[in-house]
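Dear colleague,

Following up on Tuesday's group meeting, I ran the structure prediction for the three-component complex that the binding team flagged. I've pasted the input sequences exactly as they went in, so you can double-check that nothing got truncated or mislabelled along the way. The structure tokens for the whole assembly follow below. Feel free to forward this to whoever is handling the docking comparison.

Inputs:
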Amino acid sequence: MIDWLQSLFELLPGLLGGLRLTLQITVLGVLLAASCGLLAGLARRSHWRALRWAAVSYVELFRGTSVLVQLFWFYFALPFLGLQLSAFTTAVLVLGLNTGAYAAEVVRGALQAVPRGQWEVAAALGYSRRQALWRVILPQAWLPMCPPAGNLAIELLKNTALVSMITLSDLSFSAQLLRAETLRTVEIYCLVLVLYFIAARLISLAMRDLEHWLARGRDHGGVH
Amino acid sequence: MFDLDYALSLLPILAQGLLVTVQATILGMLLALLLGLLLAIARRSRLRPLAWASAGWIEFVRSTPLLIQLYFLYYVLPETGLGMPALVTGILALGLHYSCYCAEVYRAGIEAVPRGQWEAAQSLGLRGPRLWWLVILPQAIPPQLPALGNYLIAMFKDTPLLSAITVMELLQIARISAAEQFSYLEPLTLVGLIFLLLSLIAAQGVRWLEARYAPVERTS
Amino acid sequence: MNRTRSDVRSPVAELRSAVKSYDAHTVLNGLEVSIAAGERVALIGPSGSGKSTLLRLLMGLEPLDAGQIRLFGEPLDESHRRGQLHAAQLRQRVGMVFQHFHLFPHLRVIDNLCAAPIHVLGQSKPAAQANAETLLAKVGLADKAQAWPSQLSGGQKQRVAIARALAMQPELMLFDEVTSALDPELVEEVLVVLRQIAHESQMSMLLVTHEMRFAAEIADRVVFMEGGRIVEQGPPQQVLQDPQQARTRAFLGLLPA
């Protein structure tokens, strides 16, 4: 047991830098994904056909292709069209856009979940359609968004491992490096898996807290 | 900018890569479906340690990156004497990872079967595997086919990860030819389009499954 | 707030030759109805007779297929942007209370009442809150200001819903079967509030209701609808106790004349 703990303390420092980068990309990626998801989810309901089409195309494009292929394309192919982004920017951009496409569906679903009566009562009270959306409907939609949003955040965290393949020194890359140096494969990968697992649990707990706070006063059966 | 001739010349070798991709997807999914069912049943076991262990396993594998799991198998398996071709390792990794997603889908399906079905079946003398096979699974699985279909598509889109352990699937082929010809634009764009086309077709398939097996009740 | 009041004698709401269909089913076919300023009208009839549809058309929740709606003496023409804005302005003077209350679940009771006055009328938060507290006291729920809707009984929720609609100071109030979703013992507390409104204000009221005794009590006119048409209308003593039409008698469970 002491043996295990000792090797843990030996290996951990080599991974910390990578862990920090992973967390940075995750946080920035989640922010971008939330913004894209909200914009695209709202655009899907727009009266203007062009806006709806743009949103649908964005969602279908990023959900229909592989994240890794997207990462490669943005990092290796885009320069051939004149735009060269840093690996970090590419990582945040691609992961944010990719998860954002899935988030758009979550937003759409959550808006649908708000009972129709709320739209009617808002109209009866004099709210315009736009006011009703922002002042009455959306505030009620945050709560049903929480569980799937939490899952998407964890998906983004897992996808950050892929950025090691476009030369970013994230946790996965650090693990590869450390393995090549020390050949302690099992210990390193187990440790790395546990680190990702802990990060995922933290995200889950944070989302659950958010859900609790949004659900205060409400008849909400979904919060355990 | 975009060299159409070069792009078209790539199609033959990309087709070979696609073959490997499809192989990996189908075999990986078969493994995931099988293993997932076992995991789901284990999770419901009355033996608390078994139920607890499988729940923990499912949660752990679902919350950690497939890439790391892939590397783990790729480097560790040979050390334990189980040397196998990279493609097999890849299929194993995909199957193990997605079996945990499938387990949760099965769970949802099983829990949706009304309690009365269990009781009625048991009162007719059906027990164990026969109970599952004749009564529960035929009711649990069809409504979940769309969800399983979606995971098939997800697995398909995860096959490019296998390029990290040198499997000659689509992305790997694209990378190699791109490195040879010094142009990444055409190979990667083509790969992207192939994925897009196939997943759009597959998504239609899932919609068909939805309509057939899990239609949403219309409330006026 | 500066509102132009049209001639007091013109009706607050009118439907002329109203036609409304849902899919293949025609709910209203050439309906004519008019509510005078300060009038209290009870709308009765079997399910599917178009009573709720009438209210929803007035409130703008459904579009009219053919015919005309007039509010406060002015016709509504929503075929273009300016007409839509004009209609919205007129509709702000109309309030509606629904069968299933539809309180904002994510806001406390007091905030439910303040939301629309702040966002739509542009009132300041203190002013809105002061008005809200007065209204809550009027409906007998002053102590529930900080409560959440999920903590209230059905009758309490409906009273809050009524107060919320009143906070917008409407001139015409529409009540769509506001007691139908309540357990019997909770109905009276809502009727008390409705009675209060009828006695203490000059508001025009249009109530779709199954509470015949209540209708007899406060209505100036009772309208019996069936199959999308007005079968009979008149003072409550006449329509409810001695109706002229056979179908009215049948609906009310009275023996044929």
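The first strand of chain C starts at residue 13 and ends at 22.

Cheers,
M.
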